[in-house]
Amino acid sequence: MNELLLHCRPGFESEAAAEIQTLAAQGGISGYVVTREGAAVVRFVCPEPGDAERLMRGLDFRQLIFARQWALGSWLDVSAEDRVSPIISACAAGPIASVLWLETADTNDGKALAALTKKLERPLHSALTKTRFVRPKNSEAPRLHVFFESGQRIFVGWSWMDNAAAWPMGIPRLKFPREAPSRSTLKLEEAWHHFIPRDEWDSRLAPGMTAVDLGAAPGGWTWQLVNRHMKVIAVDNGPMARSLMDSGQVEHVQADGYLFKPSRPVQWMVCDIVDKPARSSSLLARWITRGWCREAIINFKLPMKQRYREVMQCLEHVEDALDAAGIRATIACKQLYTDREEVTCHVRVLHAGSYKVQ
Ligand SMILES: C[S@@+](CC[C@H](N)C(=O)[O-])C[C@H]1O[C@@H](n2cnc3c(N)ncnc32)[C@H](O)[C@@H]1O
Predict the structure, then answer these.
(1) Phi and psi (nearest 5°) for 294?
(2) How far apart (Å, rounded) are the C-alpha atoms in residues 145 and 158?
(3) Which among 170, 201, 216 is the end of a domain?
(4) What does this protein do (predicted)?
(5) Euclidean distance between CA atoms 356 and 299, whole angstroms
(6) pLDDT for residue 98 is more than 60
């Protein structure tokens, strides 16, 4: 098990590669990346035995912005006559797992393998439970990832549930709520799943809280906030969906989101305005340092070049502004499944020191 396999959005392989390389180097672990533009996966190979596992154990998965999922393992070449036996033999070399996930890359080639993985799922699962390499009752045990690059080349790996994405390939299966006015509603829901532990939703996304939605129209994000029974100030010059206005929970302010200031502090600020990432990060820093909100979710739309560097600069800018204001906060960032040429950033104020609301 000398490598990590990381899933990412197709087209973002070089960002995922730069990120894992940087973080591994910071942790004193050497390795090299193998990837191909559009492959939607990145391999990080560690020549030194034990290094790949050390890297995975030492690195908080939440620090990875461009990786949707990861697993520690190695590759097998199998024949079309018998794929199950070599997988079972490979599993003997790894930990007992709680669950089996069959995965492919998020590409057309990957989708073309769906018939094969479907056919193999049952015999593989049955062989793995018989050999007791997978024990579903052992819910704390790692997950077994069997990734098909092709019908002949398979990666067998493991991830630990407290340090990996909660879904196969890191892709959440969220259902589009029919009443929501736009598909981008799923983006805010996915962000909550990613950034807020499920058992904290009732206290952090609580009924009666006030939220400001900048760039709100037609109201997909506002719908999510209303659905949590919050009061929403929706800021956009464009029209909001009638159904949302009829809920009585939404105040529509036709104004420039960059100039808007709430009359009193709110719990949440969310922002989906399409703009330069530097402008979005300044807006985020302003809301937090002036004490206008306690938590924020905002998109950074990425330019075509230097995307990794751009995200790092945005995060640094926010971090520096918060440090200068003496604010302790968590800052997290992820390219969500629903994010295209963008990433989503979340900030939560933990301790605001002695600063005053301005
Ligand atoms: C991607 S859409 C938002 C979609 C929305 N989150 C949803 O789920 O329905 C971006 C919105 O930002 C608005 N917008 C652009 N610049 C703005 C600004 N400076 N202030 C406020 N809204 C702005 C646009 O009118 C547009 O409605």
Answers:
(1) -95, -30
(2) 6
(3) 170
(4) Catalyzes the 2'-O-methylation at nucleotide C2498 in 23S rRNA.
(5) 26
(6) yes
- CA quadruple 160, 53, 92, 110: dihedral, nearest 10: 70
pLDDT tens-digit series, residues 276-308: 999 999 999 999 999 999 999 999 999 878 999
The DSSP code sequence of 206-232 is -TT-EEEEET-TT-HHHHHHHHTT-EE
The tens digit of pLDDT for each residue in 331-358 reads: 999 999 999 999 999 999 997 655 566 6
Spatial distance between the Cα atoms of 197 and 177, rounded to a whole number of angstroms: 21
Pocket of ligand 1 (CB under 6 A): 182, 184-185, 214-221, 235-238, 256-258, 272-274
Residue corresponding to tokens 């990666």: 155
Atom of ligand 1 nearest to the CA of 221: 8
CA of 21 to the centre of ligand 1 (A): 35
Domain count, the chain: 2
- What whole-number distance in Å separates Cα of residue 45 and Cα of residue 33? 6
Residue 52 sits in the same domain as residue 99: yes
Amino acid at 222: T
Facing residues of 232 across strands? 211, 250
> Which pTM value belongs to this model?
0.94
Angle between helices 185-195 and 220-227 (to 10 degrees): 50
**Is 160 found in the same domain as 65?**
yes
Does residue 218 sit in the same domain as residue 247?
yes
219 is in an annotated binding site: yes
Closest-lying ligand 1 atom to the alpha carbon of residue 219: 9
**238 & 332 share domain:** yes
CATH code where residue 198 lies: 3.40.50.150
Rg (CA), the chain: 22
90 among annotated binding-site residues? no
Q: Which domain holds residue 166?
A: 3-170
For 125, other C-beta atoms within 10 Å of its C-beta total 15
220 is annotated as contributing to ligand binding: yes
Dist CA 62 CA 199 (whole Å): 18
Residue 256 CA: nearest ligand 1 atom is 20
Query: Within a domain: residue 50?
Result: yes
The domain boundary, picked from 170, 199, 232, lies at 170
Q: What is the pLDDT of residues 321-330, one digit of tens each?
A: 999 999 999 9
Structural domain contains residue 95: yes
Q: Is residue 157 one of the residues assigned to a domain?
A: yes
